[in-house]
Automatic annotation (TrEMBL):
Pathway in which the depicted protein is active: Amino-acid degradation; L-phenylalanine degradation; acetoacetate and fumarate from L-phenylalanine: step 1/6
Organism of provenance: Undibacterium aquatile
Family, per entry: Belongs to the biopterin-dependent aromatic amino acid hydroxylase family.
PANTHER family: AROMATIC AMINO ACID HYDROXYLASE, PHENYLALANINE-4-HYDROXYLASE
The protein's name: Phenylalanine-4-hydroxylase
Amino acid sequence: MDNINTNNMTVSNEEFLATVAEKSHGAALRGDYEHADSHYVVKQHWQAYTEAEHDLWRALYQRQMSLLPGRACDEFIDALHKMNAADGIPEFEKTSRELFAATGWTIIAVPGLIPELTFFEHLANRRFPVTVWLRKPEEFNYIVEPDVFHDFFGHVPMLFNPVFADYMQLYGKGGLKAMQLGGLEQLARLYWYTVEFGLINTPQGLRIYGAGILSSGGEVEYCLTPGTSSRHIHLDIQRCLNTLYKIDTYQETYFVINSFQELFDGTAADFAPYYEKLKQGQALPANTLLPDETELLV
Ligand code: PHE
Ligand code: CO
């Protein structure tokens, strides 16, 4: 990665790990940060994955594929099939070449979670960071940190869609801007409710495009089950920026878009006035339904 713009705002590994340790009361991140460069890029070392890890990947892949038809959006399913990722943990470079040809994005390998600034810089330059390590067998159904299955299986297929790919780059640029404006908490909620847990309305019914759902054992079915206590409401950008989210349970609200173009157009506005306004009020609990909102039928 010698063509990355170096930038004096880059966060060193030591600084980042110290901040994470402080925030998580000493709990360490799992990845190997020792060998990361100043942009947190590592080598994938594909040859080093064990047969047991490839087996676990195949089992995860097959389980998700038993759940996703009729639930995941067509854009995701179609791209996933073209990616040939069913046979084991994929080599990032192969898919990265195909992805670059499709939408100009590349996949870069990272040790795990990376600092926000670095993350935004990668997205703003159409580079998607994918964690290299795979979860343990006992984490088959649930994992706290993103691993290669979540990052690759959940996120990469959507980057083959030109409009969504543009949205992700714009989000990265928006992140850099939000850091200057003190709007990071608000902007992170939009990522959560769209990129991770977003649903899209189609003529066939609601479909999933959020990676957090697509790579999850339980939430794929849950989020499309009628009669749960979770809400499905049309995405309003400012409302979403102001809505708290749950990280350790299924979502209490799913924001639904009508098209990726709608998502792109709605987020093209200048968020500076939104941040200013929202900073003065209180964020809404995750299960809020405002008087003028209608829940969509599942
Ligand atoms: N338009 C937003 C801003 O001005 C940036 C953004 C774009 C945020 C796309 C999210 C997604 O801050
Ligand atoms: Co993710």
